[in-house]
């Protein structure tokens, strides 16, 4: 039997009160250009109140006790004590549940610049004036998966909707909270719900006919209305009723949470846009980010495009070949490679491709030995056989990669060993580990769009979502979502005048369309660099290029108003990327020795020509800036080879700031 891992214990009331879309926070999906509206979103921290959506005011009265043996206080001291009491009470009142810290009022409106209107990726939401009821949900046995919890509640509504729920359509957050636009005909009730047994790691195909029983208890927790939210949006009430916004946000997210893959506040699915290859056994899915926010325009739903990395649905051997760039799959894995493979595949679901019926397993590890040497005992508790022999005898399958380890499912006490080549990764599993630079670049390229294209795609996403056709949103809760982007007044401010050193031919410049250059200009505060050096990690550059590059860069820095010593402390170094940390440490050590006793005690700047392959920038910066204390300037080898004046100007500006 494959074990199902639990992701956290029972949260109780704290879990129930968590805002929609909460839970474990995943690595951010890529949503460049997301507009942030005013006010706190539905995912802000802090539990909502239990009794009502209107927070009751509290009182706090400090008291001052005096000793009986002490002399009576004077009039001045009594006044001071009274004033102190008032000050303490005023400070304590800021923490009262019923009082809020009122932000300062806007002093006025802009007058400078050209007035215009811009479209923001916000869609105005109108909510009907209804009473909302909050019910606590307790499912037994406890369920770790939100998806399974939603299946349980969906079946409950289907079975008992007309007979016991008063034909109400509830909105469920997947955890501990359920909301309705009217009361159930009970305050507390327990239901029994059946779900088909999942075959995740089952021992035989007969398990698919079994059912799982769940007891679901619904208990009224609180109820409220839109009064405080409307007061807040009108500016009458200073505190935002976050719990009311949470109710509406759960309603708007209920349907897509069932249809799509949920990651934080975003939804992903192949039907929401074209998928693409990220490389190394991963693919990306497109989707959208959704969040309900209070703004000056009213309730607004922020929607933006997003993309996320998922495992490519391929045979496990193909994934290992792509992900780890293994060329010879006939060789056994080293202990180090075995650990890497185990770390990459642990928790991933696979399905068997050699059987007629579907069987899925969750990977818990890999076997310590190869498939041909991994032994187990048959059901007769007598016969010991290898995995390779078993698949040849049982399924007439000749394992092509007997030197590779097996995938392990189930528990350590009752493991299930599976050859990698008969297991296919199930589609729709998000990749949670850090992406490499190539994958990040591919993901950014997939989401980077011009404003017009982005607006068109966001409109298409909202049209595809079709909130008007969602019965829960439009009919049950009476909410309407505008199909047009919000129109916001704006101003195009004049560009600031830039001042350069008066010794240059151009002392001032007025930028046009956000652009200007350094031609005929000098920096107004040129820096001084006395001690510097250069190291080259590129193997493809001609050996003379680093010398020419440094000469041209020094000349450019001096021509732009800096005082840059033309002679480096050390001769230009050439090093291999495999010895990166060591080479940087050697440069630091040699420079410190040579500069000992001079006016400049340490290296001021290290110019680094990066390796030809990407992926070393972070290591270089961490070593130089945090460990060695060296200011570094990294340069791409292809740019260094061009010896472009414009590139030298840009690098000179960076060095001057550093």
UniProtKB/TrEMBL annotation:
Residues 1-10 have a biased composition (Basic residues). Signal peptide: none annotated. It comes from the Eukaryota. Keywords: Repressor, Ribonucleoprotein, RNA-binding, RNA-mediated gene silencing, Transcription, Transcription regulation, Translation regulation. Residues 1-83 are annotated as: Disordered. Pfam families: ArgoL1, ArgoL2, ArgoMid, ArgoN, PAZ, Piwi. GO terms for cellular component: ribonucleoprotein complex. GO terms for biological process: defense response to virus; regulation of translation; regulatory ncRNA-mediated gene silencing. Residues 51-83 have a biased composition (Low complexity). Residues 605-658 form the Piwi domain. Transmembrane segments: none annotated. This is Protein argonaute 5. It comes from Punica granatum (Pomegranate). The lineage of its organism: Eukaryota, Viridiplantae, Streptophyta, Embryophyta, Tracheophyta.
